[in-house]
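INTERNAL AUDIT FORM
Audit reference: QA-55
Scope: verify that the stored structure record matches its stored sequence.
Auditor: D.O.
Record contents follow.
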Amino acid sequence: MDLSQDLAFHLKPDDKEFHDRFCPSDRCVCKSDIQYVRITSESQGVRLINQRLRADAEKARCVYLQAVASMEQEVTHLSAHVVSVVELAESLNIGAQGSCHQSVAVHTYELATAKEYLLGDIISPSSLSKLRETLPASIAAEHDRQDHEVDYEQWKANPPAGRKDGYKPYVEPAEDFARDVETGRRKVDSLSDRDLLRAPIFIKNTHLFININDYIFGCAGGTFHPAEIPASMITLPSIQRELHKP
């Protein structure tokens, strides 16, 4: 569904000093390309899911001082029970440069109830320590596998085939992780501090992933960093049924 609507606006006096040269005749235009998903069903659960997806798209629309606003939602998995959606968004203010303007959100909903599944809903808490230990190396290996260009369009054409024995150790993870300017710590190492049980999940090609929506490889590396969750860690039967059987 198309929610695109360009926005024309005039600069307020306090903003002219910084943005005047980007807006001919004091008139700025934000270009919009907002596409969202609508699942066809009359069930109450699906209606709620559609409302949430539409609300996400509404939040991505043009606002004052913005030059580009875009969002594309894509269904990566749909069965009689669950749906997974990936949302690719870009927001660029007038005069802004560089590539730190993207975000990737993922969702998996139960169709009957509109419940959104998070990682903590589907794995045993006892698996969390192993996941924390292996996540940086897994992301680094995927980054290397995709020749250091892990954007969603490229990845979905060449997703990982899955690992029968879960995470394998990688001796040489990628060395180009971005580092915190104050501490020098690799940003990927901060994953051990996060509440991963609250991480959203998505299913693609009968494999399950979380996405690290962060610039852990710097701006040029984007925010799409999928990490596969081994099927052996997943304990929720309703999700197990959706996945590849090793």
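Auditor finding: record pair retrieved intact. Confidence is low (pLDDT under 50) at residues 162-174.
Action required: none
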